[in-house]
Amino acid sequence: MEAALIDLVVNRVIEEYVDESKFYKNQLNLTKEEWEAWKNNEFVLSEFANQQLIFLFSDYEWMLVQRVIRLTKMIPEKEQQAVLEYRKMSAAIAKKWINSDLANIEIVEKMYNKKDLEKYIQVKVVMDYNVWSYSDILSFTFPAIDRMRVTSSKQELIQLMTDTYE
């Protein structure tokens, strides 16, 4: 298993679930030891579990994941920067989509119970092609405190993406 893929998956799990244990227990039916062994490239996941990892990403995001992995194979020093490269690439693409006025922006509010209640918003930038329900989706997570920046204007959202992901 590629270290870059593991980093990208763990990053997405933390964005989506905050607590990795919720994901590996509920979605993959793994123990903590199995999850940690997988992260250390010492455990092979089942076909079902691998599919669950893929489902963390939209089809378009999964294509970007594959591109980042290929980049890290060609330039090994980039392997430690896989998450950063993915974020920069997805933000650059989303900003172009938003500037083209062809993308829709969807906002989903999330609440996580950690020590305190933490609110986040997930921003989905969606390119809908009106062909057989096909669309490309890029997702970004921001603290809910940034909601005004996200909803006030496209330029504010673009600036927030630049500040956060680049």
Structural summary, described in words:
- It contains eight helices and three strands.
- The protein has helices spanning 3-17, 20-26, 32-39, 47-54, 59-74, 82-99, 147-152, 154-165, and strands spanning 103-113, 117-131, 134-143.
- It has a three-stranded antiparallel sheet.
- Strand 1 (103-113) and strand 2 form a beta hairpin.
Short descriptors:
3 strands; single chain; 166 residues; 8 helices; three-stranded antiparallel β-sheet; alpha+beta; 54% helix
Q: How far is the N terminus from the C terminus? A: 27 Å
Biggest sheet: strands side by side, in what order? 1-2-3
Any idea what the shape is? globular
Fraction of residues in β-strands: 15-25%
**What oligomeric state do these chains adopt?**
single chain
Tell me the number of strands.
Answer: 3
Average pLDDT value?
A: 90
Class derived from helix and strand content: alpha+beta
What string gives the helices and strands in order?
Answer: HHHHHHEEEHH
**What helical percentage do the residues reach?**
40-55%
- The low-confidence parts are none
What's the total helix number? 8
Largest sheet: 3 strands, antiparallel
> Radius of gyration from the CA trace?
17 Å
